[in-house]
């Protein structure tokens, strides 16, 4: 029986998450329990993600918690994309960005300036939120 695309992607993300853990275990993650605790999750949640028994989709809030916990333990920023191996799958994102840029180039100058500012504001807000989450997790881990 052939795997559907969703199942294939889910399996790829599961394997990437497990590989991330194995590669970073000697560098600060140490154990599933430690990673779970710092991330504010139960150990069983991570184990279920590893063995595929977790419900169909890995929830984004769970992955964000795991990324923040890993960031804290490894003392470096870790993204959800790094956890799930999505940084190796950027072609669809790049194509979408190219289409957006093409559409933006067709706007009149005044409208283009407004859109550029909105995009810059959104990017800055995302950067600030990501940095804030990372710093809060890091401080919490040091207080524990």
What key attributes describe this structure?
144 residues, mainly alpha, flat
Structural class: mainly alpha
Radius of gyration: 18 Å
Averaged pLDDT, please? 81
Q: How would you characterize the largest beta sheet? A: none
Strand content: under 5%
Question: What is the chain-wise order of helices and strands?
Answer: HHHHHHH
How many extended strands? Answer: 0
State the end-to-end distance.
Answer: 48 Å
The stretches of 5 or more residues where confidence is low (pLDDT under 50) are none
**Amount of helix:** over 70%
Report the total helices: 7
Shape: flat
Number of domains: 1
Characterization of the model:
The protein is mostly helical and 144 residues long. It has one domain (5-143). The chain is built from seven helices and no strands. Helix 4 crosses helix 7 (109-143). The radius of gyration is 18 Å and the shape is flat.
Task: Itemize the secondary structure elements and their pairings.
Layout: H1 5-24, H2 32-39, H3 43-51, H4 60-74, H5 80-84, H6 91-105, H7 109-143
Short summary:
Helices cover 74% and strands 0% of the residues.
């Amino acid at each position: 029986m052939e795997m559907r695309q969703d199942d294939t992607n889910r399996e790829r993300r599961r394997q990437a998450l497990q590989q991330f853990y194995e590669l970073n275990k000697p560098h600060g993650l140490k154990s599933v329990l430690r990673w779970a605790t710092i991330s504010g999750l139960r150990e069983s949640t991570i184990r279920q993600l590893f063995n595929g028994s977790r419900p169909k989709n890995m929830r984004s809030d769970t992955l964000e918690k795991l990324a923040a916990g890993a960031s804290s333990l490894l003392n470096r920023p870790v993204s959800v994309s790094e956890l799930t191996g999505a940084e190796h799958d950027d072609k669809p994102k790049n194509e979408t960005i190219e289409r957006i840029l093409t559409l933006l180039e067709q706007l009149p100058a005044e409208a283009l300036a407004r859109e550029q500012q909105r995009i810059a504001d959104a990017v800055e807000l995302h950067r600030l939120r990501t940095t804030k989450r990372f710093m809060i997790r890091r401080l919490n881990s040091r207080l524990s």
